[in-house]
Amino acid sequence: MRDDVIHKIVQWLKDELNITKTKGFVLGLSGGLDSAVCAALTKKVTDDCLGLILPIESDVHDLDDASEMATVINLKTQYIDLTSVYDSLIKFLPDSNQVALGNIKARLRMVVLYYYANLNNYLVCGTGNKTELALGYFTKYGDGASDILPLGDLYKYEVRDLATALDIPEAIIKKTPSAGLWKGQTDEEEIGYSYDELDKTLQEIENGKIESSTAKKLKSMIDASEHKRNPPKICYLRHLDV
User: Fold this and answer.
1) Residues 6+ away with beta carbon under 8 Å from 90
2) Is the pLDDT of residue 242 over 80?
3) Architecture of 2-191 per CATH?
């Protein structure tokens, strides 16, 4: 089953290159599970892939894991420390909160990813999975901005299962998921549920079962984050006499 999923994603990625007339892929290599799986999948399609390691006040262990992953699959990388750019930018901004500042980090990284995509005629490979996308657990126009999402229909537990089949280093598979937007941040603590709970409940919601308090809470999060999954709304006027 895992081999079938890998084959289908790889073929889909090949098709996307053909459709868009692009040469390869660029992605942010964070040292986390999702980016590692995406990197391994894109490398199965073409050697014309680039992993960008883009620290902004980042944990050194994450950078080590990102480098190790690149070595394992022989992925070309570019290391660009954006901390000074981030520090310079926030000097001009009013005092804010942790989330708003974290979102700036995600958006700065995406600016650089699209720069390299333009430079090389690459597609930006997003690393979001189905669990994160459903809940809106991503930064709009940050890590949520990409050209393709190969893991977008896989729950977190399915991505983890795929990682085993792709021989992702065990340390990356088992590490605590984190967006790395501030020190000590973890996905599960911020969302308020474990990924096991999230995956189980989201599948219940998908099947129309919204009975538990958890399901109702997550359904509310899904509804509230709908704008993050859709293009900007247009105020259509052509039916009026203007």
Assistant:
1) 96, 101, 104
2) no
3) 3-Layer(aba) Sandwich (3.40)
Q: Which band of pLDDT confidence, cut at 50, 70 and 90, is reported for residue 241?
A: low
What is the predicted pLDDT for the residue at 185?
86
Taking the C-alpha atoms of residue 67 and residue 172, their distance in angstroms, rounded to an integer, is 11
Answer whether 155's CB lies under 8 Å from 199's CB.
Answer: yes
User: What does the domain layout of the chain look like in residue ranges?
Assistant: 2-191
